[in-house]
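It is worth pausing here to work through a concrete case rather than discussing structure prediction in the abstract. The textbook approach is simple: state the sequence, then state the predicted structure, then interpret. We follow exactly that order.
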Amino acid sequence: MVDTPGRRWLVLACILLTSATETSQCEALQQSPVKNSLSSTRRGFLGGTAFSLASSFIRPGYAGAESVVPLMPGGSASFNPLVEGDFEISTLIKTELARSRIQASQLSPVQQMPWDAQELYYAPFLFGAWNVTATLKRKVFPYGPKFLPSRSLLEGSPRNREEKVGNTVAYPVHYFSTLANTLKNQATVQLGLGVPESKIIQDRSFNAISVSAAYQQFAVVQDVEWDYRKDPTKVVLTFGAGPLADDMRPLGQRRTEVFLTARQTDIAVDDSNYFATAERSRSVMLAPGNIIVSDTETTTEFRRLTDDHVTAVSRIAVYLSPNPNSREGVMWQQVGGKAVAFYDYEVDMLRKKEEFVLEDGSTQERPCVRTPKDIVQCY
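Step two, the predicted structure:
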């Protein structure tokens, strides 16, 4: 690989614009076969979520969408929201985390302390396999459409460039139990103080492929690399064959590295049936001759109605990337690093169960889920 001045500048810019806890993201820039420069005008879509429900997920893929605004010098953006759809959220949510992020009209990226958990842990009632339906209820563009990095975000959503308000999509998701990699558990094991605590996490591999297929993206996720024991903060996606470029040439194999950079959880003070999560991600898509960086965040509040029925309100927030000397970097400065688009969803989840024959010949249905290690967990 040839080390050019352009490549060295690109890696240096990445390091300067990335926090100390996120510098591993720049490794992708050092090793990828980039010939020219960092591009931010062709942004991809897998969005919010393939970890769609409650984490942040992933948008990189091929959008083929041009920027909707010319390069502008200096200044700051005016709060001038464009809203599509009507969704009364205030009566549906109860946690402080959801109120502060899903109800917000302007939003900065979620933060966390360096010593906090590096995995997003969910409420125990989310264990198992679920059939999910998600309905896009509202789009909000706080600074208007001219501050969107691509026209596809105006016409569609981070999940699909043609998703409209009112569209409903169904897909399965998995949450399973694992020993939590927390300071408390580390002390428990090292000091022999008892049995370490287990926690519920989502199966990011299964969920990414499931949501990608359900939203019928141009290039679906074909393979996922994710080691939740060694490094739960990094997910690598390999995409299948995509569409042709404008000149009818194949776009080539594409790969996305997703860095889960911050997360928070919350439980309603007076009702443990309400549980909220927020997770921020940075995605780096590596394609022949091109790198695309995108930042998103997903906040979700779950409400347990019964053991087998959960509803949720979920918001995908889209942020601009602070790429130096780029159109998007200028816009990022003008909005002060705040989100430029919100996509609000109403979610319904029904738990799947498996039937077991007991010793007396009777049957019983129990929640079960298959883990990434191909182990079936039931309770």
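Step three, interpretation. The CA atoms of residues 53 and 300 lie 6 Å apart. The first strand starts at residue 82 and ends at 84.
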